[in-house]
Amino acid sequence: MTSPALRQRGESALGAIAVLALGLYALFIVVPVIMSAWKSLTDENPLLAHAKFVGVSNYTDMLHDDALTASLTFTLVTALTVTLVANVAGIGFAMLLNKTSLSFRMMRTVAFLPQVLSGVIVGFVWRYILAQDGILNHLLLSAGIIGRPITWLGSPHLAMFSVGLVAAWVLTGFTTVVHLAALQSVPVELYQAATVDGAGRWQRFRQITLPMVAPGTTISVTISLITTLKLYDIIAALTSGGPANSTQSTALYIVNLAFTDDRFGYASAVAMLLLVVSAAIALSVTGLLRRREVDL
User: Which part of the chain is the ABC transmembrane type-1 domain (predicted)?
Assistant: First the structure.
């Protein structure tokens, strides 16, 4: 078989795979978004036989929805905080694990484990750890750090802190791997030359490490933000949005609206709002970090 024939056959196979990928993307992403956008213009309720077209009524109702405002505020604050903590920790762990020995390779695997665990499992495990009679309080009491058990999930501020802690713990595995991959592409000769020129650790980090891992940081920060903005499973298992809805994320609020209050139309409108907010933040942050890559 001639080479041009082989090339044509390979191109045909790639074309078929591309069409299949686009079809799956349209089926599972584009079509549901279009359906949700349409439902957001109706008062659809599974308890009613027919849905009425209400126009932008669902969107105007959001302006007076205090629960939505609270959930959106919590989601945004948590997303920004968790993204910052997870990426700073990820860079730190990546630098510590940037070795080639077998023991360090094993530690990389352990560092990534939280990312591959189910969010529901993570939530339930940490719920047991953070319980008033849980492992964390037992360790702190045994060490004499605290005099009585702390209700980590029983007060709004501590519950919000706990949710952020668990989400950051999970995301740190991902950010560590991304930054580690970026670090391993940095030529060792750059560090050797900088050392010969008298550069200290901070100067090498500032002038070599940060600029070289900047593309990885852009990817890590963007994906971390998107992941946290749609955070649902960990919160559902850890706090169920309590106490007093203080840890109710927007994603959890959407689920409650749709499957507890049976307000499918309004839930779809809130989902469209979350989609727009997430896209705007992701695009803005990506553009900002891309410009930062050039400046560095």
Answer: 72-285
Question: What is this structure's pTM?
Answer: 0.89
Distance CA 139, CA 169 (A): 19
In degrees and rounded to multiples of 5, residue 48 shows phi and psi of: -105, 145
Residue whose structure tokens are 């074309």: 15
Q: What total number of domains does the chain contain?
A: 1
Q: Taking the CB of residue 10, how many other CB atoms lie within 10 A of it?
A: 10
Classify the C-alpha dihedral 141-143-146-151 as positive or negative: negative
| Calpha distance 277→88 (Å, rounded) | 24
Chain centroid offset of residue 218 CA: 14
Dihedral-angle region of residue 55 (phi above 0 means left; psi in -120 to 50 means alpha; beta otherwise): left
**pLDDT single digits (tens) 74-95:** 999 999 999 999 999 999 998 8
CA 240 – CA 248 distance, rounded (Å): 7
204-234 pLDDT tens trace: 888 888 888 888 999 999 999 999 999 999 9
CA–chain centroid gap for 132, Å, is 28
